[in-house]
Amino acid sequence: MAAKPRSASKRSQRTKLQPIQEASSEPPLSRERIVAIAVELLDAQGIDGLTMRRLADRLGSGVMSLYWHVDNKEDVFDLALDSVLEHRGSPETGESPDWRGDVVHMLEDWRARMLRHPWSASLLPRRALGPNILSRLEMLSKTLSRAGVADANLNAAIWSLWNYVMGATLTRASFDLSEEDRAAAQQRLTHLSEHYPTIERSRLLLDNDWDGAFRKGLDFLLDGLSPR
Amino acid sequence: MAAKPRSASKRSQRTKLQPIQEASSEPPLSRERIVAIAVELLDAQGIDGLTMRRLADRLGSGVMSLYWHVDNKEDVFDLALDSVLEHRGSPETGESPDWRGDVVHMLEDWRARMLRHPWSASLLPRRALGPNILSRLEMLSKTLSRAGVADANLNAAIWSLWNYVMGATLTRASFDLSEEDRAAAQQRLTHLSEHYPTIERSRLLLDNDWDGAFRKGLDFLLDGLSPR
DNA sequence: ACCTGAACACCGTTCAAGT
DNA sequence: ACCTGAACACCGTTCAAGT
Fold first, then answer.
1. Which of A145, A167, A212 has its CB closest to that of B162?
2. pTM score > 0.70 for this model?
3. Of A23, B136, B148, B192, which is most buried by a Cβ count within 10 Å?
4. What phi and psi values does residue B179 have, to the nearest 5 degrees?
5. What are the residue boundaries of the structural domains of chain B, listed by start?
6. Domain B28-84 falls in which CATH fold?
7. What are the CA-CA distances from residue B126 to residues A142, B25, B36, B121 (Å)?
8. Among B52, B221, B128, which Cα is nearest to A225's?
């Protein structure tokens, strides 16, 4: 409609003299691009698949060029993890009448994000405290406090929800990893549980309703910490 | 034999009768010894500190000798983790009248074992399903079932306890790692929480009573899943 | 049955240098 | 400001060989 779309004024004024094919072949290196490709690589090859050399290869640059944008490999891991954990706190959460629904929603989103990138679960234990995590904790704190959880119980309540989600996600992700060969794994599980009669009877390891179990356990916990 | 100098000078001339000190200096290689030293090394140097070459060094053997007893480095990690997670199910647990106490005791023991070897937390997400874990799940299953948890709720109840403990342990271990420099970390935490008013007010990150919080959250959860 | 060194195909990162 | 290759000090593991 408008003759001049806003995107034109966007910082892509490179039309000056730049040869076209150059722009299409390889965009310039940047922190963002490095992280994006790192996540791709991790998704495709798993945690051992991420190599500075391979990363540079995919980016079409020399290995050492990465080090201008990034401190070291640890740094790449940190950034990749952080990009998975992103949290934009919805501002209206503060007023919603359904505090319980808000909590469940935020935690389910958290879990889903991590499960989309199973390697993030094995990275987390080494670097749990980033801004995105803090932001989620803040949301929990605000919501629970508003719901009437006693101040003396607040911290324990927050951590318990937190722990529950982390544990559920890590356990679930580790199943994903070990079930690459579904059939063989199923076989192995059945075999294993023979030695453990009670969990065999309840089919603990064969039940595939992870989402349902997650929700149910979360309800137990919320029941337990709801103010009476 | 003294007539042949060529092989005599190369390696230590093992005399026909074993010198006593030889036996006392290095016991023969074995799976058990390898695992024990691997755990020592991990305790001392962390996860990146474990190297096949270093391990062999500490054992007084050539690197490749390890591979007779062990498949590869992954295998060493598996064995080391397993040795930390050991669980000898006390047989009398089946009859104790205090089911809740039994559960708490087992889970606290689990957590304590892992926290004694913080690297185990970062290893766990990659290989969650060993016999020791199954044995603990079996114990939970038996105890909760005896306590009267409905069959339809049993699996969710087991997993929720499980998840809680795993999450609590991983989170706590990651704090240990990042607080190597206590003072600086404390500073950083205070600084960080400025942006998160609610958790700053409740001093969520500065509260050091981890054991108490663990116990309290566990009580919430047990309250929630206890049969009414 | 158990142990070994040499060799291979990789790593992450420092450095001095190039634009 | 950004990128580079050569070089260093490591890795895990295969292999052929030693006892």
1. A167
2. yes
3. B136
4. -110, 25
5. 28-84, 99-225
6. Arc Repressor Mutant, subunit A (1.10.10)
7. 33, 36, 21, 10
8. B221
Give B212's contacts in chain A (Cβ within 8 Å). Answer: 156
State how far the alpha carbon of A62 is from the alpha carbons of A35, A45, A47, A71, in Å.
16, 21, 21, 15
Neighbours of A11 (CB within 10 A): 5
Q: How far is CA A205 from CA B73, B131, B143, in A?
A: 28, 13, 18
Q: Between the CA of A133 and the C1' of D3, what is the distance in angstroms?
A: 35
Of A86, A104, A186, A175, the residue nearest A143 (C-alpha): A104
Q: Express each pLDDT in B97-135 by its tens digit.
A: 899 999 999 999 999 999 999 999 999 988 777 788 889
Domain A99-225, what fold? Tetracycline Repressor; domain 2 (1.10.357)
Q: How buried is B223 (Cβ within 10 angstroms: 0-12 exposed, 13-18 middle, 19+ buried)?
A: middle
Phi and psi based region of residue A18 (left: phi greater than 0; alpha: psi -120 to 50; beta: remaining) = beta
A47 touches strand C (CB under 7 A): no
pLDDT in tens, B2-37: 332 333 333 333 333 333 333 345 778 999 999 999
Chain B residues within an 8 Å CB radius of A193: 134
